[in-house]
Structure formats: structure tokens, C-alpha cells
Amino acid sequence: MITISLDIYEKNRKLASFFGSNMDNIFISDKADILKKIRNIMSSEKNGICLTSEGRQILKRKTYLFLKKLKSMSVSREFLKIVDKPSFLEYMDFLKHNHAKECQDKLQISFVQLAREDILKYKICEQEFFYNIKENAVFLADEELLELKELVSFERTNRSSLKQFLKAAEKIKDTNCQVVKVEGEYGICVRTLMGKKYIKQTFFQFSAAGLRKWYKEREAELKHKKIEYAKSLQSYGNLLAGDIYDLVCRNSFITEEAIVKNLRGIKQTLTIKDVEHSGRYGLLTNDVVEQVCNLMMHEHLLSWRPYDRSYFYLIKPCPEGELLSEVILEEGKNISTFRDIDWVSYMKKAVENGKELRAGRTEQMRLLDQKRVLCIYPDLARQFLKNKPDYWRDFAFTMYKAESGIQKKYWKYVLGLFDEKPEKNNTI
Hints:
Blueprint: E1 2-10, E2 13-22, H1 31-43, E3 49-51, H2 53-68, H3 77-80, H4 87-97, H5 100-106, E4 110-116, E5 119-124, E6 127-132, E7 137-139, H6 142-157, H7 159-173, E8 178-182, E9 188-194, E10 197-203, H8 208-231, H9 239-250, H10 256-264, H11 286-298, E11 302-306, E12 313-317, H12 340-353, H13 361-364, H14 371-376, H15 378-385, H16 390-402, H17 405-417
Helix pairs in contact: 2-5, 7-8, 10-11, 12-15, 16-17
């Protein structure tokens, strides 16, 4: 084992004490290995230097005098927010505006080590400094000093444009968790949360307009992706799915059975807050409403959780369910691909403009099978159907004669839509 204990002096003043050891076995004859291990001990991060009170004051004084010569090395306070290690530049700004004693007191020395037998290495404000004991002088590594000077020069050259750029970034930050950092070769990296993912971009031209344009383009891309994803969901554009989601959002304590009863207009013991179309789906079966609930869970628009160790489950909304309220109609769709909202739009345009899509009789009459649409929009359907040829009504009458049970009730309801006078035929 090698143990080293020594005091470090500058002239006759004791600066610090050093103690370190190595537990390895060393052969006395191996002088080169001993010297190598001694150097390793003295430079090891595990073996620190203990500064004396006088030594600490000397280092503080020498460091202050060194930095005072570099006091022009300061940057704007806005720029300080985006550099990786701002402490050193913050101190340089402090030094520029305060007296010597305050500046020296603010210096906190840490991680003191022996870089060489005559040079101490230490940190202040996250920056590494060196103290040459023989020359009684503080210095920075040439490479680091050059890098700091170039960074300061970069900020001064671009101060005006950077100020506007960072101001624009702050406005984005107000609505989205956003980070701006200086990167290598002095680009500004913008990293912001969009949807569930972080996106980032490095800018080398600092235009506020350019930043806003980039952000709007990313927003548009995200919106497009959300719409495309929403279109892939079977629940998208489904009137019943939208009402189920709204009902779940309004009621923190609700089960699938309660959803079915509320939307079908069936009395129940639970007190449920209604939505606009509560009770309007009476001509749909329980199974149909339950199937849509299950579909929404499968598509992660709803979730369920057991209630207090009981046998039933509460239905809860998922954030993705909000996609159901962001429905965007597409022009020029084929009737065969229509969803509920497309049928509603189709009827509105036909009533307002008297124009319909060019489609065959069979395709157009598919409207009569759209139970959700006709249950929720009876007045619109009545206006749409009032001038239809007799074969529309004949088809509904044929279906009424052929069906039984709730299906028969539905086709009786459809027959009523051909009458000018509204009837109460949307209930069981």
C-alpha cells in the first residue's frame, strides 16, 4: 500500500493539505510503477485537496482578479436562460455590476485537486480553473477560454435577432412545455411537446417569423395525423358513440347498464345527468348500444375499472375520446362510405339547395336503414323525405309488414317521417 500525505505551499503560505492512498501491492524494486501509482493517487478524483482558510482566500482573490480582466465577457439575461451551464456567465454579469468584495464572496470553490505537483485544479460556477502555485496565477484551459469567447461573440453578433426569436419562443412556451437550448456550432434547439410526443428543431437563422411558421406547420401536421387516426376509428362520426362519450364525461359514476338505459329512455334508479340526446335512442336495442360501448373501449376511447371490490364496473373517458368532437366532413365521399355525420350533412344540403349526389336508388334509400341518424334528426329527415317518390314509402311499408318486435316499431317510425305532421314515434 502507498500512502501520501503532504502540505502545499505558495512561498511561505500554506495553501492546502493532501492525503491519499492506494491499496495495491507494490514491489519495492519496481520504481517506475511506484512513481506511476503516486501520480495516479495525486490526480485521482477520490483524493481531494483540503484548502486552508488562507489558501481559499488566495484562490478567491486570484480568481476574481483573473475574471476581472475578462469582465467584458458578458451576455444578455435572455441568452443566459438557454445556455447549458449558465452559472459562469451569470457570475460574469454579476461581476460587471457589483463591487470587489461582493464578487469575491460570491465565488464558491469546489472539487479541488492536484492537476500536477505545482498546479491545482478546481471549479467555480461549474467552470474548471487552474492555479499555478509557482507563478501564483490563475488561468483557464486555452481551449475552454476560446470556446467561451466565441460563445459571447456569437451572442453579441446576433443579440437583436435572438431577442425576438426567444420572445416568440416564450409565447409558444405559455401553451406547450417547450425548451430552448444553445447547441454546438451555435444553433438554437427548440424542443416542444405536441400531442404526446416531443419534437425538436435546430435553427441557425434566428427569425421569429421562421419559428412561428415552423410551429404552425408542426401543429398542422399533428392535426392532420390526429384526423387521419380518427378516421381509422369505427366510432368516428358515429352519433351514438359521441353521445356515449359526452354522457360518460358528464357522470363520474356511471356503468354500461346506466348508459344504455339513459340513452334509450328507460327509467333507472341511478341519478344520471342527461346529455342533449338522452332518451332519443329508444328504437335501438340494448345490444346495439352495448356493442358501441365495447367498440369504444377496444379503440381506447373509454376505459373501465371495478368499483370498490363490487361486481360491476364504472366507465371512464379516455383523452383520445375527444377526437369524436373534432369531426371534419369530407367532400365528394361515396354514399357507400357514409358515416352518421355524412348522412346528416347530405340531408341538410339536399334540403337547403335541392341538390343531391348522383347515386342509384338503392344507395340513396340506404338512408332509411340509418337508425341513429333518423332517431336524432327526425325533423330534418321529414323535410328530406317529403318530396321523395312513392317507392321510398313503399319500401318502408314493406319492411314494416315483414318485421316484428322492435324492428317493426322502427319501420313504423320511419313511415311516420313521410307524414307532414310530426308524431311522437321515437319512443318505445
